[in-house]
Batch of 2 targets.
Target 1
Amino acid sequence: MENGDQVEEGGDRLALVTSPQGNIAIDAPMDGTITGLQTQEGGLVSNQEPFASIVDLEQLTVQLQVPDVQLDLFEEGNPVHVTLKAAEKEEHEATIEYVASTANEAGLFPIDLSFDNATTHYNAGVTAIVSLEETVVENALLIPTAALVEADDETFVYTVNDNTAKKVAVTVQATQSDLTAVKAELNKGDKVITSGQLTLADGSKISIIGGEE
Protein backbone atom coordinates (compact mmCIF):
# COMPACT_ATOMS: atom_id res chain seq x y z
CA MET A 1 0.00 0.00 0.00
CA GLU A 2 1.20 3.54 -0.72
CA ASN A 3 1.22 6.61 1.47
CA GLY A 4 -2.33 8.02 1.57
CA ASP A 5 -4.08 4.67 0.91
CA GLN A 6 -7.28 4.03 2.84
CA VAL A 7 -7.36 1.14 5.31
CA GLU A 8 -10.71 -0.62 5.22
CA GLU A 9 -12.84 -1.61 8.20
CA GLY A 10 -11.68 -4.73 10.00
CA GLY A 11 -8.00 -4.15 9.26
CA ASP A 12 -5.96 -4.60 6.11
CA ARG A 13 -2.71 -6.34 5.25
CA LEU A 14 0.02 -3.71 5.11
CA ALA A 15 3.02 -5.91 4.39
CA LEU A 16 4.56 -9.36 4.63
CA VAL A 17 7.97 -9.22 6.31
CA THR A 18 10.58 -11.97 5.90
CA SER A 19 12.55 -12.76 9.07
CA PRO A 20 14.76 -15.64 10.33
CA GLN A 21 11.68 -16.91 12.16
CA GLY A 22 9.62 -16.93 8.96
CA ASN A 23 7.17 -14.59 7.30
CA ILE A 24 5.47 -12.04 9.56
CA ALA A 25 2.21 -10.39 8.47
CA ILE A 26 1.75 -6.74 9.44
CA ASP A 27 -1.92 -5.82 9.67
CA ALA A 28 -3.53 -2.45 10.34
CA PRO A 29 -5.00 -2.40 13.88
CA MET A 30 -7.61 0.25 13.06
CA ASP A 31 -9.52 1.99 10.28
CA GLY A 32 -7.90 5.07 8.81
CA THR A 33 -5.58 6.59 6.25
CA ILE A 34 -1.86 5.83 6.00
CA THR A 35 -0.04 9.15 6.45
CA GLY A 36 3.47 7.81 6.95
CA LEU A 37 5.18 4.72 5.52
CA GLN A 38 8.75 4.10 6.67
CA THR A 39 9.82 1.62 3.98
CA GLN A 40 9.02 0.27 0.54
CA GLU A 41 8.77 -3.13 -1.14
CA GLY A 42 12.04 -5.00 -0.77
CA GLY A 43 13.36 -2.58 1.86
CA LEU A 44 14.50 -3.25 5.41
CA VAL A 45 12.30 -2.69 8.45
CA SER A 46 13.26 -2.10 12.08
CA ASN A 47 11.49 -2.96 15.31
CA GLN A 48 12.72 0.34 16.74
CA GLU A 49 10.46 2.57 14.62
CA PRO A 50 6.80 2.37 13.59
CA PHE A 51 6.30 0.64 10.25
CA ALA A 52 3.49 3.05 9.29
CA SER A 53 1.33 5.84 10.72
CA ILE A 54 -2.45 5.60 10.40
CA VAL A 55 -4.83 8.52 11.05
CA ASP A 56 -8.61 8.31 11.46
CA LEU A 57 -9.81 11.23 9.34
CA GLU A 58 -13.49 10.47 9.93
CA GLN A 59 -13.24 12.16 13.34
CA LEU A 60 -11.12 15.29 13.50
CA THR A 61 -9.99 17.16 16.63
CA VAL A 62 -10.06 20.95 16.54
CA GLN A 63 -7.56 22.41 19.02
CA LEU A 64 -7.94 25.87 20.53
CA GLN A 65 -6.05 27.95 23.06
CA VAL A 66 -7.99 30.65 24.91
CA PRO A 67 -7.25 33.15 27.72
CA ASP A 68 -8.84 32.66 31.14
CA VAL A 69 -11.43 35.40 30.57
CA GLN A 70 -12.97 33.28 27.79
CA LEU A 71 -13.03 29.95 29.63
CA ASP A 72 -16.62 30.48 30.79
CA LEU A 73 -17.70 30.40 27.14
CA PHE A 74 -16.64 26.75 26.81
CA GLU A 75 -18.28 23.85 28.63
CA GLU A 76 -17.60 20.17 27.91
CA GLY A 77 -20.40 18.56 25.92
CA ASN A 78 -21.73 21.80 24.45
CA PRO A 79 -21.91 22.31 20.67
CA VAL A 80 -20.09 25.08 18.79
CA HIS A 81 -20.02 26.14 15.15
CA VAL A 82 -16.89 25.46 13.11
CA THR A 83 -15.91 26.86 9.73
CA LEU A 84 -12.87 25.31 8.07
CA LYS A 85 -10.63 27.49 5.91
CA ALA A 86 -10.86 24.89 3.15
CA ALA A 87 -14.57 25.75 2.77
CA GLU A 88 -15.26 29.09 4.46
CA LYS A 89 -18.90 29.25 3.37
CA GLU A 90 -19.81 25.95 5.04
CA GLU A 91 -20.51 25.92 8.78
CA HIS A 92 -20.48 22.67 10.73
CA GLU A 93 -21.18 21.64 14.30
CA ALA A 94 -18.47 20.40 16.63
CA THR A 95 -18.64 19.26 20.26
CA ILE A 96 -16.48 20.53 23.13
CA GLU A 97 -14.68 17.42 24.39
CA TYR A 98 -12.02 18.84 26.71
CA VAL A 99 -11.38 22.11 28.56
CA ALA A 100 -8.04 22.37 30.36
CA SER A 101 -8.05 23.45 34.01
CA THR A 102 -4.45 24.69 33.90
CA ALA A 103 -2.75 27.08 31.50
CA ASN A 104 0.13 26.12 29.22
CA GLU A 105 3.50 27.89 29.02
CA ALA A 106 1.92 30.66 26.96
CA GLY A 107 -0.64 31.34 29.70
CA LEU A 108 -3.49 29.99 27.54
CA PHE A 109 -5.93 27.13 28.21
CA PRO A 110 -6.09 24.31 25.61
CA ILE A 111 -9.53 23.21 24.41
CA ASP A 112 -10.34 20.22 22.18
CA LEU A 113 -13.40 19.95 19.93
CA SER A 114 -14.51 16.83 18.06
CA PHE A 115 -15.71 17.19 14.48
CA ASP A 116 -17.46 14.48 12.43
CA ASN A 117 -15.58 14.40 9.13
CA ALA A 118 -17.15 11.22 7.72
CA THR A 119 -19.15 13.05 5.06
CA THR A 120 -17.04 16.18 4.58
CA HIS A 121 -13.60 14.55 4.09
CA TYR A 122 -11.42 17.51 5.09
CA ASN A 123 -7.68 16.95 5.46
CA ALA A 124 -6.06 17.04 8.87
CA GLY A 125 -4.10 20.19 9.70
CA VAL A 126 -6.42 22.76 8.12
CA THR A 127 -7.23 26.00 9.96
CA ALA A 128 -10.63 26.29 11.62
CA ILE A 129 -12.70 29.25 12.82
CA VAL A 130 -14.88 28.56 15.88
CA SER A 131 -18.05 30.60 16.45
CA LEU A 132 -20.00 30.78 19.70
CA GLU A 133 -23.53 32.02 20.15
CA GLU A 134 -23.43 35.48 21.72
CA THR A 135 -25.54 36.17 24.77
CA VAL A 136 -27.06 39.62 24.49
CA VAL A 137 -28.50 41.35 27.56
CA GLU A 138 -30.60 44.42 26.82
CA ASN A 139 -30.16 47.57 28.91
CA ALA A 140 -27.42 45.91 30.94
CA LEU A 141 -25.04 47.58 33.33
CA LEU A 142 -21.53 47.00 31.99
CA ILE A 143 -18.46 46.96 34.23
CA PRO A 144 -14.84 45.89 33.61
CA THR A 145 -14.50 42.15 34.04
CA ALA A 146 -11.27 42.77 35.97
CA ALA A 147 -13.28 44.44 38.76
CA LEU A 148 -15.14 41.25 39.69
CA VAL A 149 -14.18 39.49 42.91
CA GLU A 150 -15.41 35.98 43.78
CA ALA A 151 -15.14 34.79 47.37
CA ASP A 152 -17.24 32.69 49.75
CA ASP A 153 -19.76 31.80 47.03
CA GLU A 154 -20.55 35.42 46.22
CA THR A 155 -19.53 37.85 43.49
CA PHE A 156 -18.95 41.52 44.21
CA VAL A 157 -17.01 44.63 43.28
CA TYR A 158 -15.51 47.48 45.25
CA THR A 159 -16.47 51.05 44.46
CA VAL A 160 -14.69 54.23 45.50
CA ASN A 161 -16.58 56.13 48.21
CA ASP A 162 -14.74 59.06 49.83
CA ASN A 163 -11.33 57.34 49.64
CA THR A 164 -12.72 54.11 51.05
CA ALA A 165 -13.66 50.86 49.36
CA LYS A 166 -17.34 49.99 49.39
CA LYS A 167 -18.31 46.36 48.74
CA VAL A 168 -21.24 45.96 46.33
CA ALA A 169 -22.75 42.56 45.53
CA VAL A 170 -23.38 41.85 41.83
CA THR A 171 -25.16 39.22 39.77
CA VAL A 172 -23.34 38.35 36.55
CA GLN A 173 -25.62 38.20 33.51
CA ALA A 174 -23.10 37.75 30.69
CA THR A 175 -19.34 38.01 30.27
CA GLN A 176 -17.87 39.49 27.09
CA SER A 177 -14.11 39.30 27.62
CA ASP A 178 -13.15 42.79 28.91
CA LEU A 179 -16.69 43.77 29.93
CA THR A 180 -19.33 41.98 32.00
CA ALA A 181 -23.05 42.68 32.19
CA VAL A 182 -24.30 42.67 35.81
CA LYS A 183 -27.25 43.45 38.03
CA ALA A 184 -26.17 45.51 41.03
CA GLU A 185 -26.93 48.59 43.09
CA LEU A 186 -24.58 50.69 41.00
CA ASN A 187 -25.17 53.97 39.25
CA LYS A 188 -23.78 55.29 36.01
CA GLY A 189 -20.51 57.03 36.77
CA ASP A 190 -19.63 54.95 39.86
CA LYS A 191 -15.94 54.12 39.97
CA VAL A 192 -15.13 50.43 40.44
CA ILE A 193 -11.70 49.24 41.55
CA THR A 194 -9.88 47.02 39.03
CA SER A 195 -6.42 46.83 40.61
CA GLY A 196 -5.55 45.60 44.09
CA GLN A 197 -9.16 44.79 44.93
CA LEU A 198 -8.29 41.25 46.07
CA THR A 199 -6.55 42.69 49.14
CA LEU A 200 -9.42 44.98 50.14
CA ALA A 201 -12.29 44.66 52.57
CA ASP A 202 -15.45 46.69 52.92
CA GLY A 203 -14.46 50.08 54.34
CA SER A 204 -10.74 49.80 53.57
CA LYS A 205 -8.92 53.08 53.07
CA ILE A 206 -7.63 53.45 49.52
CA SER A 207 -5.47 55.81 47.50
CA ILE A 208 -5.65 56.17 43.74
CA ILE A 209 -2.24 56.10 42.06
CA GLY A 210 -1.83 57.36 38.51
CA GLY A 211 -5.54 57.83 38.05
CA GLU A 212 -6.30 54.07 38.03
CA GLU A 213 -9.45 52.76 39.68
Target 2
Amino acid sequence: MNVQRLGRAFFADPATAAGTIIVTVFLALALFGPLIAPYSPTAQNAELIRQPPSLSHPFGTDRLGRDLFSRIVSGARDILALAGGGTALAVILGAFIGISVTYLGGWQEEIVFRLFDGLLALPALLLALILLGATGPSRANVLLVMVVVYTPIVARVVRSVVLALKSRGFIEAARMRNERLGYILWRELLPLVAPTLAVEAALRFSYAIFLVASLGFLGVGVQPPSPDWGLMVLEARNEFALAPWSLYVPAAAIALLVIGVNLMAEGVRRAISDS
Protein backbone atom coordinates (compact mmCIF):
# COMPACT_ATOMS: atom_id res chain seq x y z
CA MET A 1 0.00 0.00 0.00
CA ASN A 2 1.45 3.37 -1.02
CA VAL A 3 1.57 5.57 2.10
CA GLN A 4 1.75 8.85 0.18
CA ARG A 5 -1.22 7.90 -1.98
CA LEU A 6 -3.12 6.84 1.12
CA GLY A 7 -2.39 10.17 2.79
CA ARG A 8 -3.54 12.15 -0.25
CA ALA A 9 -6.75 10.13 -0.45
CA PHE A 10 -7.36 10.65 3.25
CA PHE A 11 -7.07 14.44 3.21
CA ALA A 12 -8.71 14.95 -0.20
CA ASP A 13 -12.18 15.04 1.32
CA PRO A 14 -13.10 18.29 3.16
CA ALA A 15 -15.26 16.42 5.67
CA THR A 16 -12.33 14.17 6.58
CA ALA A 17 -10.06 17.18 6.97
CA ALA A 18 -12.66 18.88 9.21
CA GLY A 19 -12.95 15.75 11.34
CA THR A 20 -9.18 15.54 11.64
CA ILE A 21 -9.01 19.16 12.80
CA ILE A 22 -11.73 18.58 15.41
CA VAL A 23 -10.03 15.48 16.81
CA THR A 24 -6.63 17.21 16.79
CA VAL A 25 -8.03 20.10 18.83
CA PHE A 26 -9.45 17.72 21.43
CA LEU A 27 -6.17 15.79 21.53
CA ALA A 28 -4.34 19.06 22.16
CA LEU A 29 -6.76 19.82 24.99
CA ALA A 30 -6.11 16.39 26.47
CA LEU A 31 -2.34 16.68 26.20
CA PHE A 32 -1.95 20.28 27.35
CA GLY A 33 -5.05 20.57 29.55
CA PRO A 34 -3.25 21.63 32.75
CA LEU A 35 -1.53 24.43 30.82
CA ILE A 36 -4.71 25.59 29.08
CA ALA A 37 -7.28 25.38 31.89
CA PRO A 38 -7.38 28.70 33.77
CA TYR A 39 -8.89 27.20 36.93
CA SER A 40 -8.95 23.93 38.82
CA PRO A 41 -11.65 21.67 37.32
CA THR A 42 -12.81 20.63 40.80
CA ALA A 43 -12.47 23.91 42.73
CA GLN A 44 -15.83 25.16 44.03
CA ASN A 45 -16.69 28.83 44.54
CA ALA A 46 -19.98 29.78 46.19
CA GLU A 47 -19.71 33.32 44.80
CA LEU A 48 -19.65 32.09 41.18
CA ILE A 49 -22.58 29.66 41.18
CA ARG A 50 -24.38 29.45 37.81
CA GLN A 51 -22.53 32.36 36.21
CA PRO A 52 -23.31 32.75 32.48
CA PRO A 53 -20.47 32.74 29.93
CA SER A 54 -18.16 35.72 30.29
CA LEU A 55 -14.59 36.78 29.53
CA SER A 56 -13.32 35.26 32.78
CA HIS A 57 -15.43 32.11 32.38
CA PRO A 58 -15.94 31.51 28.61
CA PHE A 59 -18.35 28.59 29.14
CA GLY A 60 -19.87 29.87 32.40
CA THR A 61 -19.91 28.04 35.72
CA ASP A 62 -22.02 25.22 37.13
CA ARG A 63 -24.17 24.76 40.24
CA LEU A 64 -21.08 24.55 42.46
CA GLY A 65 -19.29 27.52 40.93
CA ARG A 66 -16.81 25.38 38.98
CA ASP A 67 -15.45 26.78 35.73
CA LEU A 68 -16.96 24.80 32.84
CA PHE A 69 -14.17 25.59 30.39
CA SER A 70 -11.61 24.12 32.78
CA ARG A 71 -13.80 21.07 33.32
CA ILE A 72 -14.26 20.49 29.59
CA VAL A 73 -10.52 20.82 28.98
CA SER A 74 -9.66 18.45 31.82
CA GLY A 75 -12.45 16.03 30.90
CA ALA A 76 -11.04 15.68 27.38
CA ARG A 77 -8.09 13.75 28.82
CA ASP A 78 -10.32 11.31 30.68
CA ILE A 79 -12.68 10.53 27.82
CA LEU A 80 -9.94 10.20 25.20
CA ALA A 81 -7.72 8.11 27.48
CA LEU A 82 -10.53 5.73 28.42
CA ALA A 83 -12.04 5.49 24.93
CA GLY A 84 -8.66 5.33 23.21
CA GLY A 85 -7.16 2.87 25.68
CA GLY A 86 -10.22 0.63 25.61
CA THR A 87 -10.33 0.69 21.82
CA ALA A 88 -6.61 -0.07 21.48
CA LEU A 89 -6.78 -3.02 23.86
CA ALA A 90 -9.95 -4.37 22.22
CA VAL A 91 -8.43 -4.08 18.73
CA ILE A 92 -5.18 -5.78 19.77
CA LEU A 93 -6.96 -8.59 21.61
CA GLY A 94 -9.65 -8.94 18.95
CA ALA A 95 -7.04 -9.11 16.18
CA PHE A 96 -5.01 -11.71 18.07
CA ILE A 97 -8.03 -13.91 18.75
CA GLY A 98 -9.60 -13.37 15.33
CA ILE A 99 -6.44 -14.25 13.40
CA SER A 100 -5.07 -17.10 15.51
CA VAL A 101 -8.30 -18.87 16.45
CA THR A 102 -9.80 -18.60 12.97
CA TYR A 103 -6.66 -19.87 11.29
CA LEU A 104 -6.40 -22.85 13.65
CA GLY A 105 -10.12 -23.60 13.35
CA GLY A 106 -11.59 -26.69 14.98
CA TRP A 107 -13.18 -26.81 18.40
CA GLN A 108 -11.25 -23.76 19.61
CA GLU A 109 -12.89 -21.57 17.00
CA GLU A 110 -16.33 -23.00 17.73
CA ILE A 111 -16.10 -22.41 21.50
CA VAL A 112 -14.58 -18.91 21.31
CA PHE A 113 -16.98 -17.54 18.73
CA ARG A 114 -20.04 -19.11 20.32
CA LEU A 115 -19.03 -17.32 23.53
CA PHE A 116 -18.62 -14.10 21.57
CA ASP A 117 -22.04 -14.62 19.99
CA GLY A 118 -23.51 -14.75 23.49
CA LEU A 119 -21.87 -11.45 24.41
CA LEU A 120 -22.95 -9.83 21.14
CA ALA A 121 -26.56 -10.86 21.77
CA LEU A 122 -26.72 -8.06 24.35
CA PRO A 123 -26.61 -4.37 23.36
CA ALA A 124 -23.24 -2.81 24.20
CA LEU A 125 -24.65 -0.39 26.78
CA LEU A 126 -26.68 -3.09 28.54
CA LEU A 127 -23.65 -5.41 28.68
CA ALA A 128 -21.54 -2.57 30.07
CA LEU A 129 -24.14 -1.83 32.75
CA ILE A 130 -24.27 -5.49 33.78
CA LEU A 131 -20.49 -5.72 34.03
CA LEU A 132 -20.13 -2.45 35.94
CA GLY A 133 -22.95 -3.50 38.24
CA ALA A 134 -20.88 -6.55 39.13
CA THR A 135 -17.47 -4.84 39.37
CA GLY A 136 -18.36 -1.33 40.56
CA PRO A 137 -17.73 2.03 38.89
CA SER A 138 -14.12 3.10 38.41
CA ARG A 139 -11.79 4.13 35.59
CA ALA A 140 -10.12 0.72 35.54
CA ASN A 141 -13.45 -1.08 35.38
CA VAL A 142 -14.74 1.18 32.60
CA LEU A 143 -11.59 0.34 30.64
CA LEU A 144 -12.08 -3.38 31.29
CA VAL A 145 -15.74 -3.18 30.27
CA MET A 146 -14.87 -1.60 26.93
CA VAL A 147 -12.39 -4.37 26.21
CA VAL A 148 -15.04 -7.01 26.99
CA VAL A 149 -17.70 -5.20 24.94
CA TYR A 150 -15.65 -4.47 21.81
CA THR A 151 -13.21 -7.39 21.56
CA PRO A 152 -15.89 -9.81 20.24
CA ILE A 153 -16.92 -7.31 17.57
CA VAL A 154 -13.36 -6.78 16.37
CA ALA A 155 -12.64 -10.52 16.46
CA ARG A 156 -15.71 -11.27 14.32
CA VAL A 157 -14.71 -8.68 11.72
CA VAL A 158 -11.17 -10.08 11.59
CA ARG A 159 -12.53 -13.64 11.38
CA SER A 160 -14.50 -12.82 8.24
CA VAL A 161 -11.31 -11.59 6.55
CA VAL A 162 -9.16 -14.51 7.69
CA LEU A 163 -11.73 -17.06 6.52
CA ALA A 164 -11.41 -15.63 3.02
CA LEU A 165 -7.60 -15.66 3.16
CA LYS A 166 -6.65 -18.91 4.90
CA SER A 167 -7.32 -21.07 1.84
CA ARG A 168 -5.49 -18.75 -0.58
CA GLY A 169 -2.45 -19.92 -2.50
CA PHE A 170 0.14 -17.88 -0.61
CA ILE A 171 -0.95 -19.49 2.67
CA GLU A 172 -0.68 -22.95 1.11
CA ALA A 173 2.76 -22.03 -0.19
CA ALA A 174 3.83 -20.95 3.32
CA ARG A 175 2.64 -24.28 4.67
CA MET A 176 4.53 -26.15 1.96
CA ARG A 177 7.70 -24.27 2.99
CA ASN A 178 7.08 -25.47 6.56
CA GLU A 179 6.92 -21.92 7.85
CA ARG A 180 6.27 -21.53 11.54
CA LEU A 181 2.75 -20.76 12.73
CA GLY A 182 3.81 -17.35 13.99
CA TYR A 183 5.22 -16.44 10.59
CA ILE A 184 2.00 -17.37 8.82
CA LEU A 185 -0.20 -15.51 11.31
CA TRP A 186 1.77 -12.30 11.73
CA ARG A 187 3.81 -11.99 8.52
CA GLU A 188 1.33 -13.36 5.99
CA LEU A 189 -2.15 -12.75 7.41
CA LEU A 190 -1.79 -9.69 9.65
CA PRO A 191 -0.65 -7.26 6.88
CA LEU A 192 -3.71 -8.19 4.82
CA VAL A 193 -6.02 -7.83 7.82
CA ALA A 194 -4.49 -4.48 8.85
CA PRO A 195 -6.54 -2.21 6.50
CA THR A 196 -9.83 -3.68 7.73
CA LEU A 197 -8.52 -3.47 11.28
CA ALA A 198 -7.68 0.24 10.86
CA VAL A 199 -11.23 1.04 9.72
CA GLU A 200 -12.70 -1.03 12.54
CA ALA A 201 -10.47 0.69 15.12
CA ALA A 202 -11.61 4.13 13.97
CA LEU A 203 -15.28 3.09 14.18
CA ARG A 204 -14.86 1.44 17.60
CA PHE A 205 -13.17 4.59 18.89
CA SER A 206 -16.23 6.71 18.08
CA TYR A 207 -18.54 4.18 19.73
CA ALA A 208 -16.24 3.99 22.76
CA ILE A 209 -16.40 7.76 23.26
CA PHE A 210 -20.17 7.63 23.29
CA LEU A 211 -20.15 4.60 25.62
CA VAL A 212 -17.88 6.33 28.15
CA ALA A 213 -20.10 9.42 28.10
CA SER A 214 -23.25 7.29 28.42
CA LEU A 215 -21.87 5.42 31.43
CA GLY A 216 -20.98 8.73 33.06
CA PHE A 217 -24.47 10.06 32.40
CA LEU A 218 -26.00 6.95 33.98
CA GLY A 219 -23.80 7.40 37.05
CA VAL A 220 -21.88 4.14 36.71
CA GLY A 221 -18.77 5.44 34.95
CA VAL A 222 -16.17 7.87 36.23
CA GLN A 223 -17.33 9.22 39.58
CA PRO A 224 -17.49 12.76 41.01
CA PRO A 225 -15.72 15.11 41.29
CA SER A 226 -13.95 14.06 38.09
CA PRO A 227 -14.85 16.31 35.13
CA ASP A 228 -16.40 13.52 33.08
CA TRP A 229 -18.51 14.94 30.26
CA GLY A 230 -21.34 12.46 30.66
CA LEU A 231 -21.40 13.07 34.40
CA MET A 232 -21.51 16.82 33.73
CA VAL A 233 -24.64 16.32 31.60
CA LEU A 234 -26.20 14.26 34.39
CA GLU A 235 -25.48 16.93 37.00
CA ALA A 236 -26.76 19.74 34.76
CA ARG A 237 -30.04 18.21 33.62
CA ASN A 238 -31.96 19.40 36.68
CA GLU A 239 -30.34 22.83 36.41
CA PHE A 240 -31.39 23.48 32.83
CA ALA A 241 -33.89 26.23 33.64
CA LEU A 242 -31.36 28.05 35.81
CA ALA A 243 -28.15 27.44 33.87
CA PRO A 244 -28.77 25.96 30.40
CA TRP A 245 -25.14 26.48 29.39
CA SER A 246 -24.03 23.90 31.97
CA LEU A 247 -25.94 21.28 29.93
CA TYR A 248 -25.22 22.60 26.46
CA VAL A 249 -21.44 22.79 26.89
CA PRO A 250 -20.64 19.14 27.78
CA ALA A 251 -23.34 17.83 25.42
CA ALA A 252 -21.85 19.86 22.56
CA ALA A 253 -18.34 18.61 23.41
CA ILE A 254 -19.49 14.98 23.26
CA ALA A 255 -21.37 15.50 20.00
CA LEU A 256 -18.50 17.40 18.36
CA LEU A 257 -15.89 14.81 19.31
CA VAL A 258 -18.04 11.89 18.12
CA ILE A 259 -18.76 13.69 14.83
CA GLY A 260 -15.07 14.43 14.35
CA VAL A 261 -14.04 10.81 14.96
CA ASN A 262 -16.80 9.52 12.66
CA LEU A 263 -15.65 11.83 9.87
CA MET A 264 -12.10 10.59 10.35
CA ALA A 265 -13.27 6.97 10.36
CA GLU A 266 -15.11 7.51 7.08
CA GLY A 267 -11.97 9.12 5.67
CA VAL A 268 -9.89 6.11 6.70
CA ARG A 269 -12.39 3.74 5.09
CA ARG A 270 -12.51 5.72 1.86
CA ALA A 271 -8.74 6.19 1.66
CA ILE A 272 -8.06 2.48 2.15
CA SER A 273 -10.71 1.41 -0.36
CA ASP A 274 -9.35 3.88 -2.96
CA SER A 275 -5.72 2.86 -2.47
